[in-house]
C-alpha cells in the first residue's frame, strides 16, 4: 500500500531529500482537467477543459475572476482551489481598498505562494492538492502569467499547461513559442484553443460547454460566454 | 509623623502641596509643628509639603494622545504644469512661535516618480516617511519590478491618516503628494489630518490655502512650461513669506517629471525693505514715540 | 499644565463638514442622481472638482455629502462588499439590497458614526426608479425623491412642491413615482442646483447628473456659480 517509509507525513524527509507528501499533492494536480495559458506583454489567454462529476451533475467551474484585471484557473482538488481563490479575492480587495488600484498579478501569485508554503510546513495539515494558473495585467508590467504548484513554488511563464494530459498541450505550445511574441489577441486565442485541443482525448470534439476561455488585455479581464466560445471553436 | 501625601492629581508627579488646600492636612501639620517645633529642613518648606508620584495611578491613567503639535512646518504648496509637478515649501520648523530649526528639508522623495511635502508636526512626518520607506522596501523585496506610483502612495496615505483619526490619535500633518501616475499623467493631491483628501491642479496645505491658492487659481494654466510654473510658484512663496509669520525666506522647490525627482538647493525670493518710510516709520506720526 | 480652554492651538475634532448637496429623483422607468462638485471647509473652498456620486453596481448609484473622508471610506467599504456579494452570488447587487446593506454599515458605527448624508438611487427589480434616503446612523426610507446636504433646506421644499404624488397608502394603489418625464426632471434638478448655489455658500462650481434608465447610465453636467 505504501510507496515507502518516508511518505507518512510532511515532516519527514526521504534520504534523497524529497518530501513525498508534497509530491503526492503534485500528482493530485495531474488528476484535474487541463488548463492552458499563453500570452505576451499585450495579451494573454486562459483556456481550460471542464469536466462533469457524473452525467447527472453540472459542469465544474474552472476559471475564476479575481478582480477586473486578473483571472485564475485551477486544476486538482477543486475545494482546495476554491480556498485559494477566496484568499486571492480577499487579498485583491484589500489591495484595492488601501491603494485604490487592482492588485497586480505578481503580488497575488506571491500571496498564493505564501499560503501554499505555510500549509506545506505544518504537521497538522496537508499540502493543497491544486495548481493555479494566474493570468492578469498591470499598467506597469503588462500581461503576465504565473503558475503555482502545491509546494508553493511560483513561476512566471510565457505559456504553460497544467493538469491531466497537459504534456501534449505543452508540446504544442513549445512548438509555437515564436508565434506567441507577436500574436494578436485572436491569434493568441487560437493558439490556446489548439493547445487545449491537443489535450482533449475525449471521443467528442471541444464544445462550448466543455471548455472555458478567458482573455486578458491591458487592464481588462473578460471571461468569454458560451456563445462566444462556440464561435471561437468553429475557427479551430 | 504625617504620612507622605500624594498629589490631588497623581499623574502630575512630584511637587509641593501648598498649605491651605487641604484643611485636614494643614491641621495635621499644625499638630506636628506644635509637638516638634516648626519644620526646619529644606525638604519640607514651610509653605507646603512634598508629595510623591503615585506610579500605580499613572498606570491606571487613561492613555493620552497628541493634543497639540510641537515642532511644526507651515504651508506646503503644489502646482501642476505641462509635463510635471512642482512642490514647494520653506525650510523652517517652528517650536511654537520660535523659528527653531531653519534647515529642515520639508519635502521627501518617495521614489523615482513621487515626492511628498508636509505641514504640521515634524516628528509625525518622520513617522510617515518611515511608513513609506517600509512600503518601498517591501516592493524591493518582492523583486517583481513593481513600484507604487504617486496615486497609490496618495491612497495609502489617505488610509493611514484616516485610520489614525479613527483611533483618536491623529498624525498632526497635512500632506501634499506630487508625482506621476503609471500611465504617465501628472498627479497632485493632498491629505489632511483627519483623512480629508482631494486631487487638484494646484493644492496648498496649511495657511497657504488662504494665501497661495488664490494666486494659483488666478495664474494656473494647464499647459504652463516649467519656467512659467516656477514663476507662479515663486510669487506664491513671496506672498506666503510676507503674510505668514511662520514662513521663512528660504525655500526649496521639488520637481517631479518623467525624468525623476529633483529637489532644488534652498533659495530666497527677493524682498524689498529699503522704502524711505521704513527707515524712520514714526517720523511723520504725531502720536508716535 | 495649562488650564482647560487655554490651549494655543485649535482643538482637534475627528469630524469636519465639507458641505455639498446631493439629490435624487425617481421616475417610472428612470432615476436621476445629482450632486454639486464643491468641497469646502469653513469658509475655504478646497476643490471645485469633488464628485460625490458613485456607481456602486450596474443598477445602483450612491451620493454622499457631509464629511468627505467618512463618505469616501464608506463608499470604499461598500464597493468592497459589493464585490464580495458578486463573488458569492454570481450576480451584481441590486439597489434594494444595496440600500439595506448601506443602512447596516451605517448602523454598525452607531456610536462613532460616519458623518455622511447619503442618498441611494437605482432601478429596482421591476426597472422602476427607486430612491433611498438616510440619516447618518442608518435610518432609511424608500421615497421617490430626496435631497441631502448643505442645500437640503433650500431644495427639499421645491421638490415637495413639484414632485409630491399620491401617498403609497391610498387604495387602490397608484404609482408614487414622479409623473415628470426624464427630460423635465433633468431641467428641474438643474434649476434646483442653480437656486441652491445662489444662497448656499457650500453648493456651487458644477452640478453632475447621473441618469440611469433601461439603456444604462449617462452623465450630464452644468456649471454653477463659482463664488
Automatic annotation (TrEMBL), chain A:
PROSITE patterns: PROTEASOME_ALPHA_1 (PS00388), PROTEASOME_ALPHA_2 (PS51475)
Assigned keywords, A-Z: Cytoplasm, Nucleus, Proteasome
GO cellular component, one term: cytoplasm
Proteasome alpha-type subunits domain boundaries: 6-28
Gene Ontology BP term (one): ubiquitin-dependent protein catabolic process
Compartment(s): Cytoplasm; Nucleus
InterPro entries: Ntn_hydrolases_N (IPR029055), Proteasome_alpha (IPR050115), Proteasome_alpha-type (IPR023332), Proteasome_asu_N (IPR000426), Proteasome_sua/b (IPR001353)
Subunit: The 20S proteasome core is composed of 28 subunits that are arranged in four stacked rings, resulting in a barrel-shaped structure. The two end rings are each formed by seven alpha subunits, and the two central rings are each formed by seven beta subunits.
Family, per entry: Belongs to the peptidase T1A family.
Function: The proteasome is a multicatalytic proteinase complex which is characterized by its ability to cleave peptides with Arg, Phe, Tyr, Leu, and Glu adjacent to the leaving group at neutral or slightly basic pH.
Protein name: Proteasome subunit alpha type
From TrEMBL, chain B:
Pfam entry (one): Proteasome
Listed CDD domains: proteasome_beta_type_4
Disordered: annotated segments: 33-68
Gene3D superfamilies: Glutamine Phosphoribosylpyrophosphate, subunit 1, domain 1
Alphabetical keyword list: Cytoplasm, Nucleus, Proteasome
GO biological process: one example: proteolysis involved in protein catabolic process
Subcellular location field: Cytoplasm; Nucleus
GO cellular-component term (any): cytoplasm
Chief place of localization: cytoplasm
Subunit text: Component of the proteasome complex.
Family: Belongs to the peptidase T1B family.
Purpose of the protein: Component of the proteasome, a multicatalytic proteinase complex which is characterized by its ability to cleave peptides with Arg, Phe, Tyr, Leu, and Glu adjacent to the leaving group at neutral or slightly basic pH. The proteasome has an ATP-dependent proteolytic activity.
Name under which the protein is recorded: Proteasome subunit beta
Organism: Ostreococcus lucimarinus (strain CCE9901)
Source lineage: Eukaryota, Viridiplantae, Chlorophyta, Mamiellophyceae, Mamiellales
TrEMBL record, chain C:
SUPFAM superfamilies, sorted: N-terminal nucleophile aminohydrolases (Ntn hydrolases)
PROSITE patterns: PROTEASOME_BETA_1 (PS00854), PROTEASOME_BETA_2 (PS51476)
Pfam families named among the record's database cross-references: Proteasome (PF00227)
One Gene Ontology CC term in the entry: proteasome core complex
Keyword tags: Cytoplasm, Nucleus, Proteasome
Keyword Cytoplasm belongs to the record: yes
InterPro entries: Ntn_hydrolases_N (IPR029055), Proteasome_bsu_CS (IPR016050), Proteasome_sua/b (IPR001353), Proteasome_suB-type (IPR023333)
One Gene Ontology biological process: proteolysis involved in protein catabolic process
Localization: Cytoplasm; Nucleus
Subunit note: Component of the proteasome complex.
Protein function: Component of the proteasome, a multicatalytic proteinase complex which is characterized by its ability to cleave peptides with Arg, Phe, Tyr, Leu, and Glu adjacent to the leaving group at neutral or slightly basic pH. The proteasome has an ATP-dependent proteolytic activity.
Protein family membership: Belongs to the peptidase T1B family.
Protein's recorded name: Proteasome subunit beta
Species for this entry: Ostreococcus lucimarinus (strain CCE9901)
Amino acid at each position: 500500500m505504501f510507496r515507502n517509509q518516508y511518505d507518512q507525513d510532511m515532516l519527514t524527509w526521504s534520504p534523497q531529500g524529497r518530501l513525498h507528501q508534497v509530491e503526492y499533492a503534485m500528482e493530485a494536480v495531474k488528476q484535474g482537467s487541463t488548463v492552458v495559458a499563453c500570452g505576451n506583454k499585450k495579451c494573454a489567454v486562459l483556456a481550460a477543459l471542464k469536466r462533469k462529476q457524473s452525467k447527472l451533475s453540472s459542469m465544474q467551474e474552472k476559471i475564476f475572476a479575481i478582480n477586473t484585471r486578473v483571472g485564475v484557473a485551477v486544476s486538482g482538488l477543486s475545494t482546495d482551489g476554491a480556498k485559494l481563490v477566496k484568499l486571492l479575492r480577499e487579498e485583491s480587495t484589500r489591495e484595492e481598498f488601501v491603494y485604490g488600484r487592482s492588485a497586480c498579478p505578481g503580488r497575488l501569485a506571491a500571496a498564493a505562494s505564501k499560503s501554499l508554503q505555510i500549509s506545506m510546513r505544518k504537521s497538522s495539515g496537508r499540502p493543497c492538492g491544486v495548481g493555479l494558473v494566474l493570468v492578469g495585467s498591470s499598467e506597469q508590467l503588462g500581461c503576465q502569467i504565473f503558475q503555482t504548484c502545491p509546494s508553493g513554488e511560483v513561476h512566471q511563464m510565457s505559456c504553460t499547461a497544467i493538469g491531466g494530459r497537459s504534456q501534449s498541450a505543452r508540446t504544442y505550445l513549445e512548438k509555437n513559442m515564436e508565434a506567441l511574441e507577436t500574436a494578436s489577441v485572436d491569434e493568441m486565442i487560437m493558439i490556446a484553443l489548439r493547445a487545449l485541443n491537443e489535450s482533449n482525448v475525449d471521443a467528442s470534439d471541444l464544445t462550448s460547454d466543455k471548455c472555458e476561455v478567458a482573455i486578458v488585455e491591458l487592464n481588462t479581464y473578460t471571461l468569454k460566454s458560451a456563445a462566444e466560445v462556440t464561435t471561437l471553436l468553429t475557427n479551430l | 509623623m504625617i504620612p507622605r501625601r500624594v498629589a490631588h492629581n497623581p499623574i502630575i508627579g512630584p511637587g509641593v502641596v501648598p498649605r491651605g488646600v487641604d484643611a485636614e492636612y494643614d491641621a495635621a501639620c499644625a499638630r506636628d509643628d506644635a509637638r516638634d517645633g516648626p519644620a526646619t529642613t529644606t525638604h519640607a518648606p514651610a509653605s507646603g509639603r512634598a508629595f510623591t508620584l503615585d506610579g500605580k495611578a499613572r498606570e491606571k491613567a487613561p492613555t493620552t494622545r497628541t493634543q497639540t503639535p510641537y515642532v511644526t512646518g507651515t504651508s506646503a504648496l503644489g502646482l501642476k504644469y505641462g509635463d510635471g509637478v512642482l512642490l514647494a515649501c520653506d525650510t523652517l520648523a517652528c517650536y511654537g512661535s520660535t523659528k527653531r530649526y531653519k534647515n529642515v528639508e520639508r519635502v521627501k522623495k518617495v521614489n523615482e516618480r513621487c515626492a511628498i511635502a508636509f505641514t504640521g508636526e515634524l516628528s509625525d512626518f518622520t513617522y510617515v516617511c518611515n511608513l513609506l520607506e517600509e512600503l518601498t522596501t517591501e516592493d524591493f523585496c518582492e523583486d517583481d519590478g513593481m513600484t507604487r506610483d504617486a496615486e497609490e502612495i496618495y491612497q495609502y496615505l489617505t488610509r493611514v491618516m484616516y485610520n489614525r483619526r479613527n483611533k483618536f490619535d491623529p498624525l498632526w500633518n497635512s500632506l501634499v503628494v506630487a508625482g506621476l501616475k503609471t500611465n504617465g499623467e501628472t498627479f497632485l493631491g493632498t491629505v489632511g489630518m483627519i483623512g480629508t483628501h482631494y486631487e487638484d491642479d494646484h493644492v496648498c496645505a496649511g495657511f497657504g490655502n488662504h494665501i497661495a491658492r488664490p494666486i494659483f487659481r488666478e495664474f494656473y494654466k494647464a499647459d504652463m512650461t516649467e519656467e512659467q510654473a516656477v514663476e507662479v510658484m515663486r510669487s506664491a512663496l513671496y506672498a506666503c513669506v510676507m503674510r505668514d509669520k511662520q514662513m521663512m525666506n528660504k525655500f526649496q522647490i521639488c520637481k517631479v517629471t518623467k525624468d525623476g525627482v529633483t529637489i532644488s538647493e534652498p533659495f530666497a525670493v527677493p524682498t524689498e525693505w529699503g522704502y524711505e518710510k521704513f527707515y524712520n516709520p514714526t517720523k511723520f506720526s504725531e502720536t508716535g514715540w | 499644565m495649562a488650564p482647560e480652554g487655554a490651549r494655543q492651538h485649535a482643538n482637534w475634532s475627528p469630524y469636519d463638514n465639507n458641505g455639498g448637496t446631493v439629490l435624487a429623483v425617481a421616475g417610472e422607468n428612470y432615476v436621476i442622481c445629482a450632486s454639486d462638485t464643491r468641497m469646502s471647509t469653513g469658509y475655504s473652498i478646497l476643490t471645485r472638482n469633488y464628485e460625490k456620486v458613485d456607481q456602486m453596481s450596474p443598477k445602483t448609484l450612491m451620493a454622499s455629502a457631509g464629511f468627505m473622508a467618512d463618505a469616501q471610506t464608506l463608499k470604499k467599504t461598500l464597493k468592497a462588499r459589493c464585490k464580495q456579494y458578486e463573488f458569492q452570488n454570481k450576480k451584481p447587487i441590486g439597489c434594494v439590497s444595496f440600500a439595506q446593506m448601506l443602512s447596516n454599515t451605517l448602523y454598525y458605527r452607531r456610536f462613532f458614526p460616519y458623518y455622511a448624508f447619503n442618498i441611494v438611487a437605482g432601478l429596482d427589480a421591476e426597472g422602476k426608479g427607486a430612491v433611498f434616503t438616510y440619516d447618518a446612523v442608518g435610518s432609511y426610507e424608500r421615497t421617490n425623491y430626496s435631497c441631502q446636504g448643505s442645500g437640503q433646506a433650500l431644495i427639499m421644499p421645491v421638490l415637495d412642491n413639484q414632485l409630491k404624488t399620491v401617498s403609497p397608502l391610498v387604495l387602490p394603489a397608484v404609482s408614487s413615482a414622479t409623473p415628470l418625464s426624464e427630460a423635465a426632471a433633468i431641467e428641474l434638478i438643474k434649476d434646483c442646483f442653480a437656486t441652491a448655489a445662489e444662497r448656499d455658500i457650500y453648493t456651487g462650481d458644477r452640478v453632475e447628473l447621473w441618469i440611469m434608465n433601461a439603456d444604462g447610465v449617462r452623465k450630464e453636467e452644468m456649471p454653477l456659480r463659482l463664488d
